[in-house]
Specification:
Length: about 290
């Protein structure tokens, strides 16, 4: 059936969807969107598929997750000593997004190959903290923390910007579905329910320590210029929403403040953006 949308509206949809696909897929290196598979690690059509498909929630949640992760001295050291994150934030975010996509939706063979690549990279990510404490990216507990912060913020982003009424059973199901990815990466312990995740977050809290390096990475994350100048207002909105999404103690450790009285307005604006992205991408999926 032919689209009933006006040419100008359809053009807007195509522009938004194309921009999103272009950001998350490096066409210069032959990257294409990950195709869903019936043989995926996460159950096809399950809760993880819904959560990870919500672009605004994943973008805001991804930024919040990075801010949280960078408060752990060992996670921070791995990024500080062994990556080009400070010079290429968007590239790192793109790589992380593709890893999540392939391990959520891709064929099991492709997902396991991606996990194996990450584990090989981790083999070389080790060293010592400024105080002499050794760190290793393959440390099961460190991997558990990275998984916890990422999954918690993705789920929080989905709940805030897509499904505020998400029932507890679905939240538990999410943790159970993504556990396989963490386990294959070597994480331990791996939470399988929301209660287990909340308990583990409390357990990790004493290990989080802000310092000059975490402050530098925080500022890079929150103040990095967008790829295109016209996207600056959108990026500022997403960064503000990510700060608001953080757990209160994590935000306090970073020396950040919530939007205060403006929090509902910031949330509403991001919710509206999320709806626009879903509208545009749904149109693209129908054309495919």
């Amino acid at each position: 059936m032919a689209s009933l949308a006006s040419p100008s509206v359809e053009g807007l949809r195509r522009a938004i969807a194309g921009g999103v696909v272009g950001f998350f897929n490096d066409a210069a290196n032959g990257q294409q969107p990950i195709q869903p598979s019936d043989d995926a690690l996460c159950p096809p059509g399950g809760v993880a598929w819904k959560v990870h498909a919500d672009l605004a929630g994943m973008m805001v949640g991804g930024v919040a997750a990075l801010l949280w992760q960078m408060l752990h001295p060992k996670a921070l050291a791995g990024v500080w000593d062994h990556s080009d994150f400070r010079r290429n934030m968007h590239g790192r975010l793109r790589n992380t997004a593709r890893f999540i996509a392939v391990t959520t939706y891709g064929a099991r063979e492709d997902a396991e190959a991606a996990i194996a690549r990450v584990r090989r990279i981790h083999d070389h990510v080790n060293g010592t903290l400024p105080d002499g404490t050794p760190y290793d990216a393959n440390d099961p507990r460190l991997l558990a923390f990275v998984h916890l912060a990422g999954s918690a913020m993705f789920l929080a982003g989905y709940r805030r910007f897509a499904n505020p009424a998400m029932p507890p059973a679905e939240r538990d199901a999410y943790w159970g579905e993504v556990a396989i990815i963490a386990e294959k990466l070597g994480a331990d312990p791996v939470p399988r329910t929301e209660a287990e995740a909340e308990a583990l977050a409390r357990d990790f809290l004493p290990e989080l320590r802000p310092d000059e390096r975490s402050a530098a990475v925080r500022d890079i994350i929150l103040n990095a210029p967008p790829d295109r100048l016209r996207l600056f207002p959108v990026q500022r909105l997403l960064m503000r929403s990510a700060t608001d999404l953080l757990p209160r103690e994590v935000r306090r450790l970073h020396g950040l403040r919530s939007s205060g009285l403006a929090t509902p307005a910031v949330g509403a604006a991001t919710f509206s953006l999320a709806s626009t992205l879903r509208w545009a991408l749904a149109s693209r999926e129908k054309r495919a």
